[in-house]
Amino acid sequence: MAFYEYVTKEQLAGFDKYKYSAVDSNPLSVYVMHPFWNSVVKVLPTWLAPNLITFTGFMFLVLNFLMLAFYDYDFDASAEGHVHVPSWVWVAAGIFNFLAYTLDGVDGKQARRTNSSTPLGELFDHGLDSWACIFFVATVYSIFGRGQAGVDVATLYYILWVVLFSFILSHWEKYNTGILFLPWGYDVSQVTISIVYIVTAVVGVETWYIPVAWSFHYRDLFTVMILGCSFAVTLPMSLFNVFKAYRSSTLKHGSLYESFLPFLSPVLLFLLSTLWVLLSPSNVIQVQPRIFYLMVGTAFANVTCKLIVCQMSNTRCQPLSWLLLPMSAVVLLVATGAVTHSEFLLLYAWTSMVVLAHIHYGISVVHQLSDHFNIFAFSLRKPSSD
Q1: Poorest-pLDDT segment among 45-54, 241-250, 274-283
Q2: What residues form the membrane-spanning segments (predicted)?
Q3: CA dihedral 232, 236, 238, 242 (to 10 degrees)
């Protein structure tokens, strides 16, 4: 594979000066999960590379996504009158989700335990986290799916965007303050999702058909939990932390334009993908929701990874991602009706390009930083992560 130098010399110089700074004040994380992770990391062999732990956890989420794609490709298996997902699949999904969450929590501890922390490890960890958003959101959606007691695929599209913007908020905070304030919603959601998978295996999806009270269904509880974590917890805390840095004159970017520059590409990506949904002649979001979610989530991850590189290297965020240019052309073809009879083929082709482009970007950045720091990213002798 030919590698491209995505990281500039200025950014490489910034990585040399980088120091990890994070705040985790979530009571669930501090008093429950961290003690648990501290116990887990003690049984891991010291030769196990932290980056390998990170990647393994991410692959559990991908496995969940693929497993549910096989049993519930169109998100309708949980609806009344359809063949439901086997109970063992929900058990496996719950175990895999919790394993992914656990490995994500112990990789940095393993790095510090083996004295092998590097900026590459943190970048690798958070880069995969940005891509993981689509996999765990699309997988948990299968619990409710479509149908009278479910969530419409178009509604989930907007819920997915709420999750994506909640993720990027933390890195926007760090871009402006230099400190990563870990969001409370993440730990709560991961523990809850893991439990719900197991409960679904025991009680069956039919249980979710019954309203909690009056006409309030479990699907509404699912929506409220996501929106509540985002708008009642994550967003206010992010704005407060940035405002506090402004009051103490510690903001890294003085002007309002520079401070909000990281949001330009994600907002444009949201507008382009939403235009596609609204103008689609074939109603693409209803017919191919899983592929469309994958395309959006992967494109978002690519944009977010570039922001993470900028905030870690203390360099200016680029206004536009190059990925938006060909996507604009794709949406233009859809909007003008030029691909009315081949829209799904266009979606498959564009999704494949986005996924391959993002994988190439990730491998190239890992290769470039590994060379720069003179380390082996997945070496069992010299593990590297944070």
Answers
A1: 241-250
A2: 52-71, 83-103, 123-144, 156-172, 184-210, 222-243, 255-279, 291-309, 321-339, 345-363
A3: 180
